[in-house]
Design a protein that fits this description.
This protein is of the alpha+beta class and 132 residues long. It has a single domain, classed as Roll (2,3-Dihydroxybiphenyl 1,2-Dioxygenase, domain 1). 23% of the residues lie in helices and 41% in strands. It has 3 helices and 8 strands. An 8-stranded mixed beta sheet has the order 2-3-4-1-5-8-7-6. A hairpin with a 4-residue loop joins β2 and β3.
Amino acid sequence: MFTEIDHIAIAVHDIDKAMEFYASVFGAQVEHQEVVQKDQVHEALLRVADSYIQLLMPTSQESPVWKFLVNRGEGLHHVGYRVDSCQEALNSVISHGYQAIDQVPRRGSRGTTIAFIHPKSAFGTLIELVEL
């Protein structure tokens, strides 16, 4: 079902400093920025071939990313995999008895459709399903 890696998400305290690091050290340019109100994050996407590095900074202390930063510090937050059908991939996860965070797909940034799979079901990795 996976068609490719959509993004690698990195939780950061200061998105401007993180963007400057990737720009000055690697020449990576921000292709898209968005505040995702539902998830309470500011995201910046830096293109790497056909995928992205997604920098995530919480916009409130209620954000799951805020809680992640408090508990684990900055670093790898999740991996986003592209799928042709988010609903089909989510149904497969649930029908196989694994735990999904989202029970139905929802709108993500860039107009995508997304759903998250709980890390307890995925060997410690938070997985995001991404349908373009």
